[in-house]
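USER: Note each token:
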Amino acid sequence: MNNINKVFIRELGRIRSDRSLRFMLLIGPLLAFFLIISIFYKGVPNDLPVAVVDNDNSTLSNKIESWVDATSIAKVAYRIKDLKDAEILMEKGKIDAIVMLPNNLERDVVKGISPEIPVFFNNSNIVKGGLLYKGIFTCLSTIKAGLKMQVRTKKGYSQMQLMPSVLPIKYDVHLLYNPYLSYVYFVGTAVLAIMLIVFTLLSCIYSLGSEIRYGTSKNLLESVDGRISSVIIGKMLPYTFVFTIFALVIDLLLFVVLDVPLNGSLLTIIVSQILLVITYQACAIILIALTANLRLSISFGAAYTMMALSFSGLTYPAVGMPTIAKIFTLFFPFTYYLEIFISQSLKDIDVHIALYNLLPQFVFILIAIPLVKRIKVLYNNSKYWGKI
């Protein structure tokens, strides 16, 4: 314990004096969390800019424009007379959709003719394009149904007779786990955890690898009588403590600030987060031991953590992946953590089932333990020192 305390205090001194460590340990995570919260705070995109090309200039066309503007997803930012001008605005990125109200719109409706209302979407951003399509289509469909009922009511049809033709299929939709279609539930929870593991892995790689880079590793080993276990534990403890605190901050942001549901066990989530931090510290040991190179380890570490989001099954379900991609998902501790978090926050799955996802993470720790001896070799051998 004396040796561990000695290394621990020494590491605190290095953190105070090294700007890179201070950034990766404190400043970077805080900036990342602030940025993510500012992006996902509203939960879903809204008031996306839309242009209306009104070629009818009638009472009905003005009402349609108002109804489109009243939807939560769209905001009529421009009222234009020429479609070409609207297309220019879309090419410049100032609008995401164009609603074109044709000539004689109101006259055709009065005559019982169903006019076509062209709508153009900018699908370079699939998320915005899809949301606008759904919101504007729902709006126009509702308007169409209401107008159809008005016209047929004047012809003597009763409401009971009209409903089967206006709404032949009645939808009864229940969205499981994410009823508000909130991107906080879907993406925000994962991206915050990704930032946690990015800074955990990179800071621990830098802490271990910089000793080799600057040739201070042998003196460090000699100060603890060559006990490499004391070195590893003492150096990792400050990061374990700080990033565990950040994990609790993430829980506070998600469950209190962003109002993400917590249907299961908070304790299980916290335990899985602590294990996630330790697992990625083990990954830092693995990368340094295998590469013996600080720069290469940091490059691999950055790629490894960012790939975790793609292969976690969140953005693209693992069930639909090719077999080799499914196997690849198993090599990321983040995959197992995400299963636990979603099961306990959104789904309320039995804790005993969720805990099975803790076991694979211990594999990474077990792989790292024998590689600690390799770290000792690197620390003692001068031929590895000084490499970038």
Remarks:
- The chain has two domains: 2-41+182-384, 48-166.
- Residues 55 and 195 are 49 Å apart (CA to CA).
- The mean pLDDT is 85.
